Structure of MaoC domain protein dehydratase:
Amino acid sequence: MAEKIGWQGRFYEDFEVGDVYPHQIGRTLLSCDNSWFTLLMGAPSPVHFDHHYAAQTEFGKPLVNSVLTLATVMGQSVSDLSQNVFGNLGWDEIRLPAPVFEGDTIYSQSEVLEKRLSKSRESVGIVRVSTTGFNQDGVVVITFRRTIMLYRRGYQPKLPRPKLETTVKSKG
């Protein structure tokens, strides 16, 4: 049986300015996600986890923590953009044009804006993208720009690939 290596992500050379990547996996944000994330980050605003309190606001229900929205959309982009990341250099121009509510499903896509080789590291290049997150109704809920330092092909660290034994040993 031949071993077939799965998706290993894009390298710097794989990106072209103008490329658009629709990120394939959506994520429904649940009440437990929102409460857990809000409390984990130590920012316990009741609008995120107190349904009685949130019902008294103009929204009438809990808002999803905006940092959870950012983390979700950024995470959706990893397999397309930064699986071979050397490091994130920054997030800029983060905008939240519409609220996200518990039960909303978030989808996203990214467009390549710029790319260049690193001036200080031969092994990497720098790619700048614009990412948009939208809900199940197509309403844009977040936009941001991200600058990523990515490995060039052949310079990435090697993942360990242990050989599995393919035969079954009997006990007797």
User: Anything to note?
Assistant: Residues 16-151 form a domain with the Thiol Ester Dehydrase; Chain A fold (CATH 3.10.129.10). The mean pLDDT is 92.
